[in-house]
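user:
I keep going back and forth on a fold encoding question. Separate attempts, laid side by side, tell us more than any discussion would. Would you put together a sequence-and-structure record for a protein of your own picking? Write it directly below this note and I will take it from there.

assistant:
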Amino acid sequence: MTPHGAVLLAALLLPAAPAGAGSLPAGDPGKGEALFRACAFCHTLGPEGGRRAGPTLHRLFGRVAGAVDGYPYSDALRSSGIVWTEDTVSRLFEIGPDTMTPGSKMPLQRMTDPQQRADLIAYLKRATTSP
């Protein structure tokens, strides 16, 4: 296992919440849309949106990290083995990309409030899924 893989595995195995706390609360896509404004500087949501400093998030959920054609991902993210799910997106913002994907280009972004993470994820699920 590569050093990045070992760090990723350790980060994913850290407890995401206190024992018995369960998963994220139900998210509000309207509140998530407001939270996404900070992400919109680097990411677009639709297939026609192309990329900015970061890749498009179109069809994010279920996608392997580092898989958007034509985007120059860091080796750290491309080799991370992450599949973007509600849990992995939540974890990314809970612990920060510097911990979850050390060596990646994503700037430090943390969202410690589980409700805010749930709201952002609810919005992303709605906005990035093709009809």
In short: Residues 3-22 have pLDDT under 50 and may be disordered.
